[in-house]
Amino acid sequence: MAESVIDVFDRLSGCYDDVLPFFSGFGRLVAERLPEPGPAGRLLDIGAGRGAIAVPARERGYDVTATDAAPGMVARLRQEQPGLDVRLMNAVHLDFPDDSFDVVTAGLVMHLVDDAAAVVREVHRVLKPGGLFAFTVPGREPDGFEFADGANALFGEFARYLPPQGGMGVAFDEIGTLAEAGFDPLRETDLRLDLPLADAETLWRWFQTHGSRKYLDDLPPDRRDEFRRRLLDDLGGRRPLTLRRYVWLHEAQVTRP
Ligand SMILES: C[S@@+](CC[C@H](N)C(=O)[O-])C[C@H]1O[C@@H](n2cnc3c(N)ncnc32)[C@H](O)[C@@H]1O
């Protein structure tokens, strides 16, 4: 049976975001854009991982609750952030009363959950009227954009060698799903992160520390070796090497009275 997304992140929790500050980098960009917290601004971060958003949101003054469905992630976050309220929880069933939070965040999670619409309904329920849902999904590349590395082209090319259910993550209609749950979609913003890479091998190691690991593990071994060889050959001579990625930040507000 295919390994579930939660099991993958549980397995990767010991190395997640260790090689490059990718998720923590995007998490800071999201946290910076949140509104000023009110006197008792309560923020729920779902699929919190190692606290990419939860930690800087707390630094900004929010009263943060971080949740994740992978026990390993929860254990690591508790260990690294002893003062943070961290709970093991699947985002499909949020164990909080209605109208509990001013802000809910979800960094690069919504495209991974089994039922994004169900999660959006739960988020809507636990937000106070006027509350904000801010979440990121992997970005669409703006027109004319070229990847600073050739890896995305390889991911596209090798997808045909994946078994059914291979890899992870599905796009969904974010705006339609928000509107259906009763949100007023406010804004879509593309966020960009450039991270210098010491060498091509660093990029390969980075792929082992998050969701792309499942894609690579799901390839037949000879194709995986070929992917690695092509990546290293392609990038080996290029200097400087930069990992440039985009995510889309969606912000939406609860409209119920
Ligand atoms: C790509 S990571 C993002 C983590 C963090 N938000 C960040 O930006 O680094 C996805 C996280 O979502 C969690 N996750 C996946 N499915 C989930 C679900 N149904 N409910 C709660 N967490 C989930 C995983 O365990 C993992 O920690």
Describe the structure.
The chain is of the alpha/beta class. The protein has a domain at 5-143 and 169-196 and 243-254: Vaccinia Virus protein VP39 (Rossmann fold, 3-Layer(aba) Sandwich). Helices cover 37% and strands 25% of the residues. The protein contains ten helices and seven strands. A seven-stranded mixed beta sheet has the order 3-2-1-4-5-7-6. Strand 1, helix 3 (54-59) and strand 2 form a beta-alpha-beta unit. Helix 5 (116-126) packs across helix 7. The longest helix is centred in the last third of the chain and has 16 residues, at 221-236. The protein is globular, with a radius of gyration of 18 Å. The N and C termini lie far apart (45 Å). The mean pLDDT is 91. It binds S-adenosylmethionine. S-adenosylmethionine binds next to helix 1 and helix 2. One of its GO terms (biological process) is methylation. Keywords: Methyltransferase, Transferase.
